[in-house]
Write a structure and sequence with these properties.
38% of the residues lie in helices and 17% in strands. The protein is α/β, with parallel strands linked by helices. The protein has an eight-stranded parallel beta sheet. Helix 1 (52-64) links the parallel strand 5 and strand 6 (69-73). Helix 4 (141-148) crosses helix 5. The longest helix has 19 residues, at 168-186. The two termini are 20 Å apart.
Length: 286
């Protein structure tokens, strides 16, 4: 966890994470990040919430189901996705963020984007977290924007930028070191950083499985950890499950993550995953 620093620069021993303007107590329970895709082409729910009114209703529903963070995305990052323009992405996400951020007691809002201008518009509209699937590596200016707004960030390892080592876990750690260095040089506070190992942004399902098996080691890296396996190929391919049949396998990844101390799970089915991780949290507590 965050706090005092070892020689390798990894912070340890803090108990609080800043999420936008709020605080999250590390280790008390597993946080659930609800996915809200306002896109026509996301792999699982593309087109379902492309309408602003429907998206706002879905965001409220995610909060009612127990989401601790609502993660809003306006561009799909599925394999083979087509990039949309900055203006188009802003037009998709900003009205939704503006409407939800004014709701009383609404959880922190994260903007899932790779574009600097989209992140800026979203932070101005009320988001408090930037979820960058390139981990500040592809666009280092994103780190300065996050620092300027005193926002929090989710820095994802992305194997599409190449592996740093023959060892999957070592490669992820090296990527994170680069991401964290960029963040800290830009002035992002270390207690505003969450790390994501990038399940599904790998080359094979064996690599995804290696990440899941290595979650304890990755959590020991020293920062709060989030995983996003919900409905992805790792929850379907091993048992030949279609998208609509991946709830139980997703719940298994969430429960396992909670059991080994992962701090957040990013999911589509919030209510079911809340129940799964809360039960695991209770089992773990002595």
């Amino acid at each position: 966890m965050m706090g005092e620093r070892e020689e390798n620069g990894i912070p340890l021993n803090s108990t609080k994470l800043k999420l936008g303007e709020g605080l999250w107590s590390i280790g008390e329970q597993t946080g659930v990040v609800g996915i809200l895709n306002v896109t026509p082409d996301s792999f699982s729910d593309g087109g379902e919430y492309a309408d602003v009114e429907l998206a706002v209703l879905k965001g409220k529903d995610l909060a009612d189901q127990g989401a601790d963070i609502v993660d809003i995305g306006g561009e799909s990052t599925r394999p083979g996705y087509e990039e949309v323009s900055i203006d188009e992405e802003i037009s998709r996400v900003v009205p939704v963020i503006s409407a939800l951020s004014t709701q009383e007691s609404f959880p922190p809002i994260s903007i899932d984007t790779t574009k600097l201008d989209v992140a800026r518009a979203s932070l101005d509209a009320g988001a408090g977290i930037v979820n960058d699937v390139w981990g500040f590596v592809r666009d280092p200016e994103m780190a300065g924007l996050v620092a300027e707004h005193k926002a929090s960030c989710i820095l994802m390892h992305n194997a599409r930028l190449g592996w740093r080592s023959n060892s999957i876990l070592d490669s992820i750690k090296r990527f994170w070191e680069e991401s964290i260095l960029r963040a800290e040089k830009a002035g992002v506070e270390e207690d505003r950083i969450i790390l994501d190992p990038g399940i599904g942004f790998t080359d094979t399902r064996d690599q995804d499985m290696a990440i899941l098996r290595g979650l304890s080691e990755l959590r020991a890296f020293g920062f709060p950890l989030m995983i996003g396996a919900s409905r992805k190929r790792i929850t379907g391919v091993p048992m030949n499950l279609s998208l609509k049949d991946r709830l139980e396998s997703t719940l298994a990844t969430s429960a396992f993550a909670a059991a080994v101390g992962v701090d957040f799970v990013r999911v589509h089915d919030v209510r079911e995953n809340v129940r799964a991780v809360r039960m695991m949290d209770m089992i773990r507590k002595k």
